[in-house]
Amino acid sequence: MTARTSSAALIGAAFAASVVYAVSAQQGDGPRYAPGTSNLLRPADYREWIFVGSSLGLDYRAAASGQAPGFGNVFVNPSSYRAFMQTGKWPDKTTFVLEFRASGKETIADREGRFQTTLSGLEAEVKDSRFPDGWGFFLFNNPDAATKGSPPLTGDTVQRCIDCHTKNTAVERTFVQFYPTLFDVAKKMGTVKANYGEP
Amino acid sequence: MTARTSSAALIGAAFAASVVYAVSAQQGDGPRYAPGTSNLLRPADYREWIFVGSSLGLDYRAAASGQAPGFGNVFVNPSSYRAFMQTGKWPDKTTFVLEFRASGKETIADREGRFQTTLSGLEAEVKDSRFPDGWGFFLFNNPDAATKGSPPLTGDTVQRCIDCHTKNTAVERTFVQFYPTLFDVAKKMGTVKANYGEP
User: What is the pTM of this model?
Assistant: First the structure.
């Protein structure tokens, strides 16, 4: 958002409503954990976060025979997005939500394409110094994830996350090579990993 | 964003900065035209708007032989998104940006998928009572679209837009059937067109 302002708009009831919105948007968009735990609460508002990229067929689950490819949408919390656009780096508390959706097929004129349909999975990756590795990985596959949170993955499971997010990522532990507007910034800021080869 | 608040957070310098942000986000996110015209200025910040859906291969340009399918990302201005989530209808001044991106190919494990790369086109659809039809359609293919704007499409060209956006859309003149979180709201609110058949 651009930082335009209007003195007239700073007065009145609409103003108060905007303030509440702004404070929550600016200061409350990092990870929230269930009290006393590192169980990440499923963010209620991630669809209003910043969209950084979408892919088709790149989910890493086992492919069922004949199954249509799924979309993956990636969202990041707004304050961390803004920090990245300035620096090419992710601040502590950066939260990514990866949303999987099934795809439908439609034909317009002579072209057949795919669009997004039902939710098929929801995961998160959080940069947080509370985790031994500095990053936590989460699956929101428990129905009470919004209120009780989901525990960070551990053991061999998280090791697979870490290995892939170490070996195949362009910036830190993140697939910035798939987020074109961010990749441009990382290249400009010199934060692409030295050993990274473009896809 | 949820409407959480904190009295402590309402004081101090961060507060002032948030107010500026909030006013611009809440009240300044509708269409902006070059003075005295209906030429739409290319929104500088549409990538921070609300993402509603992505498709692959559904662009309506002529397909070049052997060309990889392109992605289409759709963003809507935040205040209109919030209105739609409450009502299932688009308020006047709703602005959609349709961003086309080329796709790259990557293989993870045994699955081949596509991710988004370079920008290949940018268009807009605006609900605005200033247009005879109530909706304007724009191509941002002029390099000075950010400062001088792009004129609304006219004549046979816009008629094709209108015909397709009348015949094939689920809600008003918009392809809400391809935006799954919005489609759910429209069905709940009863704003899906009576003659619409689900894709």
Answer: 0.85
